[in-house]
Specification:
This protein has six helices and seven strands. By secondary structure, the protein is of the alpha+beta class. It folds into two domains: 78 residues; 53 residues, no CATH class. The strands form two sheets. It has a four-stranded antiparallel sheet with strand order 1-4-2-3, with no helix packed on it. Strands 5-6-7 form a three-stranded antiparallel sheet. The longest helix is centred in the N-terminal third of the chain and has 15 residues. The mean pLDDT is 82.
Length: 155
């Protein structure tokens, strides 16, 4: 960590050291997305932040706020959806576990994240569950389906 701090005096590093923990947290992002959705009547998965020992709702997806590439995501049917398993992961200051509504099409079709800078889409990432590897994988997308094509696949 001290080497990283020294390096940051020589070159610009983003996010800054004092913001790394906050930037990596889904906790704030979820709160902001919930506010935006409620103000615009958008649908959002219901999220319940959990405290150690809370009951874990059976039909939800359980995630950790600080995660990487789906490493801390437990689907309703997965083993290890308990506090004993969760406590085996390295402790990350400020991280929390949360339960979210299960969206059945998410595992089948994945999710698309559009990165927008200055009001312009810069790139899109498609994250999808890889059944063979039992993990989530992602790729930068360079071709797109129309909304009509996406809806025809989902419904």
């Amino acid at each position: 960590m001290s080497n990283f701090c020294r390096l940051s005096t020589q070159i610009h590093i983003w996010p800054p050291m004092n913001q790394i923990n906050g930037i990596g947290s889904k906790h704030r992002v979820i709160i902001h997305l919930d506010i935006i959705a409620s103000q615009n009547s958008f649908l959002r998965p219901t999220t319940k932040f959990l405290k150690f020992g809370d009951d874990i709702p059976k039909s939800t997806v359980v995630k950790r706020s600080h995660s990487d590439c789906g490493e801390h995501v437990f689907m309703p049917e997965d083993d290890g959806r308990n506090w004993r398993s969760f406590s085996q992961y390295p402790k990350i200051p400020g991280s929390v576990w949360f339960a979210q509504s299960h969206i059945s099409t998410l595992r089948k079709h994945g999710e698309w994240r559009v990165i927008i800078i200055g009001g312009q889409p810069v790139y899109t990432v498609h994250t999808k569950y890889n059944e063979a590897k039992s993990t989530w994988s992602w790729e930068i997308v360079d071709n797109f389906y129309s909304l009509e094509e996406i809806l025809s696949v989902i419904f």
